[in-house]
Design goal:
Radius of gyration: 25 Å
Shape: elongated
Helix content: 55-70%
Number of domains: 1
Strand content: under 5%
Distance between the termini: 72 Å
Order of helices and strands: H
């Protein structure tokens, strides 16, 4: 077991490992953006549906 005061060597990533990590991060970011967009669209659609068709028949 290592001590919290133990100094560890930090190894630099090779270019291949860095590129692979960047691809994984990009895919995760895109997946989160798509999930957030679907979540927002779902709430927008449900809000319009709950208001019903009378929403568009009101007097301005």
């Amino acid at each position: 077991m290592s001590s919290p005061y133990e100094i560890r060597a930090v190894e630099a990533d090779t270019p291949e490992v860095a590129a692979a990590k960047a691809r994984v991060r990009r895919r995760r970011s895109i997946a989160l953006a798509i999930a957030l967009a679907l979540f927002a669209i779902t709430f927008y659609t449900l809000t319009i549906v709950k208001m019903g068709p009378a929403l568009f028949d009101r007097a301005l």
